[in-house]
UniProtKB/TrEMBL annotation:
Keywords: Cell inner membrane, Cell membrane, Membrane, Transmembrane, Transmembrane helix. Belongs to the UPF0056 (MarC) family. It comes from Dechloromonas hankyongensis. It is a multi-pass membrane protein. The lineage of its organism: Bacteria, Pseudomonadati, Pseudomonadota, Betaproteobacteria, Rhodocyclales. Its main location: membrane. This is UPF0056 membrane protein.
Amino acid sequence: MVDSLNRLAISFFLGGLISLLTITNPLSKIPVFLSLAADLEVGATSREARRACFYGFLLLTVGLFAGVFILEAFGISFGALRIAGGLTVALIGYRMLFGTSDAAPAGGNGSFAFFPLAMPGIAGPGALATVIGISSEIAELSGGMRRVTAYAATVASIAITCLVIWLVLHSARWVSRHLGAEGLNVVARLTGFLLVCIGVQFVGSGVRTFMAGA
């Protein structure tokens, strides 16, 4: 029993972490963050980065736990959710792969931690679709302990993702100097390809769910 729960926890943690890190693409936030923080002091810049990641964590966690209830309220099946989420993720990946700008819009004066950094920068459509898709998989697990384990592992993956994003934003100027525009572009293209693959996997999972329920 313990070994089974450990394998389940590792599966959901690694699955959530890889998917979220790929779709949020922390390095892609650097240009937007630097442009928004251009007139801020170092202390204020760090504070905005910290608040943005905290807000992003809250939004994604709420999406994880409320996702199934939202689906049930609107009568949306798990299969439909996975197909729609997969298409959303694949579209974002396609735009990144072929160089279409997907940067978050600039905010106005004052704090930009919630908008546009946390939403849609961190908790954008793709990331929210991912966590809601994971929540639909958890809902199909049998046994309360298995569900608790899966939820805990996924929350941990969200927390680690936001921590990585904070580290990248905190060292944004250093990373930008060393990678340069070309390096950031290469990372974006590779990430885009991975997102297309993840999106196709989501669609395939949704189709299988549809066929099983037919």
